[in-house]
């Protein structure tokens, strides 16, 4: 939970700071960015939009995966992944299905709230809508959709392998 709190807090604080014109100017002085501020800010909003899609897709995939592992046909073949506590190989009984499902749902809720808050901060500070920018980009460049799917899949793979 501490890791989720840190992740959400840094998203809400750090992402808007990196969108500021001051940060953009610093990147220019360090010769790390040669984009105009308008282009750079649009890129930052797009990044935030895709990150939100990836987080939601990966959490939905993780919740679906633990439901399949707990209730699925391979439950007996992989008892540890059924999340049945001590019966499944977890001697301390810490990783049961209810706790895993509950904490994953809480984590997802934290991500949704953090994304909502940072979108409001960006709209308030910069007068730009993150979701509108993202959906416009997907309509303008439909090839971004498969790219987003790859990003989502890679994030989901990392998330699921870190929960094992």
Topology:
Elements: H1 2-18, H2 21-29, H3 37-71, H4 97-126, H5 130-140, H6 144-162
Helix pairs in contact: 1-4, 3-4, 3-5, 3-6
Description:
The protein is an all-alpha fold and 164 residues long. Helix content is 74%, strand content 0%. It contains six helices and no strands. α3 packs antiparallel against α4 and α3 (37-71) packs across α5. The longest helix is centred in the first third of the chain and has 35 residues, at 37-71. The protein is elongated and about 60 Å long.
The helix fraction, in percent, is: over 70%
Quickly count the helices.
6
SSE order in H/E notation? HHHHHH
User: What class, by secondary structure content?
Assistant: mainly alpha
Tell me, rounded to a whole number, the average pLDDT. Answer: 82
Secondary structure: number of strands: 0
Radius of gyration: 19 Å
Beta-strand portion reads: under 5%
Low-confidence stretches: none
N-to-C span:
17 Å
Largest sheet: none
Any idea what the shape is?
A: elongated
In short:
By secondary structure, the protein is mostly helical.
Short descriptors:
164 residues, mainly alpha, 74% helix
């Amino acid at each position: 939970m501490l890791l989720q709190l840190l992740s959400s807090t840094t998203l809400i604080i750090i992402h808007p700071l990196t969108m500021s014109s001051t940060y953009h100017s610093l990147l220019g002085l360090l010769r790390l960015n040669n984009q105009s501020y308008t282009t750079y800010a649009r890129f930052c909003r797009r990044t935030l939009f895709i990150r939100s899609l990836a987080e939601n897709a990966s959490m939905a995939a993780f919740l679906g995966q633990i439901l399949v592992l707990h209730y699925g046909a391979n439950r007996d073949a992989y008892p540890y992944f059924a999340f049945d506590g001590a019966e499944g190989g977890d001697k301390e009984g810490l990783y049961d299905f209810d706790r895993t499902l509950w904490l994953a749902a809480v984590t997802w809720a934290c991500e949704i709230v953090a994304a909502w808050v940072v979108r409001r901060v960006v709209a308030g500070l910069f007068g730009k809508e993150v979701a509108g920018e993202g959906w416009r980009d997907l309509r303008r460049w439909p090839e971004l959709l498969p790219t987003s799917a790859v990003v989502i899949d890679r994030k989901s793979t990392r998330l699921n392998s870190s929960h094992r």
